[in-house]
Design a protein that fits this description.
globular; single chain; 401 residues; three-stranded antiparallel β-sheet; alpha+beta
Length: 401
């Protein structure tokens, strides 16, 4: 690759994409990032550049891994899909069938599909989040099992920003016996050669990029002002936003999530833990490969990850907003995957499914075009510009395709 400031490979057809990626880094907008696209089983783009740290002392390398935040949820969804296909997980079964302790305090009738589709009403903790004990899995699952939901399970969609991973992950553990990180490693990552981990090991720490977080108080302040606008001045969609803001659900799920500032997301405690909604670490190439496999029939080199019927089932719309946590916006979910994610590329074309991350990361598959796309980075931007780079890259790629 001869474009300034970046390394790797790009098919000449997509040179414009490489130029946009290079510009995002050389301009200083992105600190460090990697981009990969697999099309019809071939890796047509695999680029990286910039720096792993804010001091710009370590260059981003091909094997640099970075925290991809909620992109991890799509990885967990793939684990759940494998159990669904094997007949071990029934989405219409009550959660308490697999996890008896969960069936209390108004959660008795919660179904597995409610967890996967963010409809369980469990988008936060009733007690203070134990942010210094990320590796204490049972601490989090015990708190969730014992508490009451914030909303009646099954009746509304509210994004489970952090709790999704412990809820779905515990069901996976109860069925299989392995943690979700171990399950993914042994059932998916190792057989397919994917450099992605939910819970890194000590030997990975030196290649982890640091994430630079920003505070978005000003954006939240503007949103709070929505609560005081008369309905007659608002469209139906904006009334949904107003209702979501007034509910305060977003504050429960996000503001109190314990992830403000640089810590704990750059701490060793966070990186070594399994937080399956938010702390997967990996390369763009591995995520593009994973979604590329899912978008080309579900098998690679003789290893069957999922069959096409399962893929179609889990990536179909199973829940449609407005989302009470995500500001009343019309997010659509399959079984753990985002099928429509406003203000991001996901949902702009039929057949897309994947997940975004709060740092600006976007990873998706495209069943109609047989591709896997992944952009990951390590500098968070303001809410209005959160997915600017991913949007620009995606538009250029599809135009060239």
């Amino acid at each position: 690759m001869n474009i300034e400031g970046i390394s790797g490979y790009c098919d000449p057809r997509f040179e414009k994409v490489a130029e946009i990626f290079s510009s995002s880094i050389n301009s200083g907008y992105e600190l460090g990032a990697s981009l990969a696209v697999e099309h019809q089983g071939e890796m047509v783009i695999n680029l990286w550049g910039g720096y792993q740290d804010e001091a710009r002392s370590k260059l981003w390398q091909e094997d640099t891994i970075v925290n991809v935040f909620s992109v991890t949820k799509g990885v967990v969804a793939t684990c759940a899909a494998r159990l669904i296909e094997q007949g071990l997980l029934d989405i219409d079964q009550k959660v308490s069938y697999y996890w008896p302790e969960y069936g209390c305090n108004g959660k008795q009738d919660t179904k597995v599909i409610d967890l996967l589709c963010h409809r369980a009403g469990m988008f936060g903790f009733q007690e203070e989040l134990p942010v210094d004990e990320w590796r204490n899995w049972q601490k989090f699952t015990d708190l969730l099992a014992a508490q009451a939901p914030f909303r009646v399970p099954g009746e509304s969609q509210g994004y489970h920003a952090l709790t999704f991973g412990w809820l779905v992950g515990e069901v996976i553990r109860r069925i299989d016996g392995r943690s979700v990180g171990t399950y993914f490693s042994e059932e998916i990552a190792k057989p397919l050669g994917l450099d992605f981990k939910i819970g890194v090991v000590d030997s990975d720490l030196s290649r982890c990029a640091d994430t630079v977080m920003v505070r978005n108080e000003s954006a939240f302040t503007v949103l709070k002002m929505m609560a005081y606008l008369p309905d007659m001045l608002l469209s139906k969609s904006m009334r949904d936003v107003k209702g979501a803001v007034k509910s305060g659900d977003y504050s429960v799920a996000f503001t109190a999530r314990g992830l403000d500032g640089d810590d704990p997301v750059n701490s060793t405690e966070w990186r070594l833990a399994e937080v399956p909604a938010a702390n997967g670490h990996g390369t763009a190439a591995s995520l593009a490969k994973l979604y590329g496999i899912l978008s080309t029939g579900g098998s690679r080199n003789g290893y069957q990850l999922l069959n096409p019927e399962t893929i179609k089932h889990v990536t179909s719309v199973h829940s449609d907003g407005p989302d009470t946590v995500l500001f009343g916006l019309p997010y659509q979910f399959g079984l753990g995957y985002m099928v429509n994610s406003p203000m991001t590329p996901i949902g702009t074309n039929p057949g897309m499914f994947g997940h975004t991350g709060i740092g600006g990361e976007v990873t998706f598959g495209d069943l109609n075009n047989n591709l896997g796309f992944s952009f990951v980075n390590n500098r968070q931007h303001s809410l209005g510009n959160l997915y600017k780079t991913a949007n620009n890259l995606t538009k250029a790629f599809y135009k060239a395709l």
